[in-house]
């Protein structure tokens, strides 16, 4: 029996919002990146206490959010889904989009002088420093549009998981999510089986792992070595509602997101 603390994980942010059932008390900030919005974006938006667009992510909210509500007036939707903050180096946001949200009262932070960190980095630092990010109740961060697309951007997005290992960050696309499992903890991952899985992976992207042990997977590891160039756990399958992971290295956990059960009809704006 290890003395390490357990870190709990659950993708309950993919469940239709019901404040009465929201017993986990987890508070989220949402960062919208500059890629097509996943179909469950309105749901994540409603879960979030703080909503940011990373530079060109604002174009996506402006252009694509109204498409989720074809029977409603586009302007009414844009007014309803107002980002709290737009932050980045501002080389991708369109002038008309910037003007629209400035008029609505969105806070705009232009950091064009910093060409060494990504717009996602810049947004994460804003959230970490926010007064909403209380010591007793840290914000978890959801980032949409982080995967698929340009590989240099994807690598930069994965890098933020390692830059801020003490911040709970989930990278999302329409197809899957990725998060870091720090070696400092044992991990219990509670699977929302109606919404996620069964495909999953455990990937030692930063450093090799001499010993990883899991339970609840079709191909469990038992003090198994994983490294790039050797074995890494891809195309694994979730077998139980609870997965446990313990490793001597930080690992990436990834799980597929199901196409069913996340349609726009499933939530009330
Ligand atoms: N194709 C993509 N794949 C993955 N992530 C992306 C992609 N495009 C943008 N992003 C994410 O969205 C953020 C904002 O995108 P934006 O296009 O505004 O960035 P950028 O700094 O102008 O990028 P670049 O100048 O390298 O094209 C990026 O920092 C990145 O995290
Ligand atoms: C070694 C090195 N490689 C690339 C960049 C360029 N870069 C990295 S993040 C960023 C901002 C993107 O919004 C830019 C332009 C750099 N500065 N240093």
What does this structure look like?
- The protein has 269 residues and is of the alpha/beta class.
- It is built from 6 helices and 15 strands.
- A 10-stranded mixed sheet has the order 5-4-3-2-6-7-8-15-10-13, with helices on both faces. The chain has a 5-stranded mixed sheet with strand order 1-9-14-11-12, with no helix packed on it.
- The N and C termini lie far apart (46 Å).
- The chain binds adenosine-5'-triphosphate (ATP) and the ligand Cc1ncc(C[n+]2csc(CCO)c2C)c(N)n1.
- Adenosine-5'-triphosphate binds next to helix 5 and helix 6.
In summary, what is this structure?
The chain has 269 residues and is α/β, with parallel strands linked by helices. The protein has helices at residues 41-47, 57-64, 74-80, 95-104, 119-129, 151-163; strands at 6-10, 27-32, 48-54, 85-88, 107-110, 139-144, 169-172, 176-181, 186-190, 196-203, 209-215, 224-226, 233-237, 242-247, 251-257.
């Amino acid at each position: 029996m290890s003395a390490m603390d357990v870190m709990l994980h659950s993708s309950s942010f993919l469940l239709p919002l019901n404040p009465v059932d929201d017993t986990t008390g987890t508070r989220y900030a949402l960062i919208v990146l500059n890629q097509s919005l996943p179909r469950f974006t309105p749901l994540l938006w409603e879960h979030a206490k703080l909503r940011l667009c990373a530079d060109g992510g604002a174009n996506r909210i402006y252009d694509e959010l109204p498409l989720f509500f074809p029977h409603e007036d586009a302007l009414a939707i844009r007014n309803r889904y107002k980002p709290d903050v737009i932050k980045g180096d501002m080389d991708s946001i369109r002038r008309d989009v910037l003007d629209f949200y400035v008029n609505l009262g969105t806070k705009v932070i232009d950091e064009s002088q910093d060409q060494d960190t990504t717009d996602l980095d810049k947004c994460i630092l804003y959230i970490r420093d926010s007064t909403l990010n209380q010591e007793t109740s840290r914000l978890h961060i959801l980032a949409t549009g982080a995967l698929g697309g340009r590989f240099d951007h994807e690598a930069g997005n994965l890098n933020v998981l390692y830059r801020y290992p003490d911040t709970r960050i989930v990278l999302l696309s329409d197809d899957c999510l990725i998060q870091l499992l720090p070696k400092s903890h044992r991990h219990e991952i509670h699977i929302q089986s109606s919404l996620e899985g069964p495909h999953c992976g455990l990937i030692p992207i930063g450093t090799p792992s001499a010993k990883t042990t899991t339970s609840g997977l079709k191909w469990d590891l038992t003090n198994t070595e994983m490294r790039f160039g050797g074995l890494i756990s891809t195309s694994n399958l979730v077998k139980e509602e609870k997965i446990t992971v313990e490793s001597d290295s930080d690992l990436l956990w990834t799980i597929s997101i199901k196409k069913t059960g996340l349609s726009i009809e499933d939530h009330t704006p």
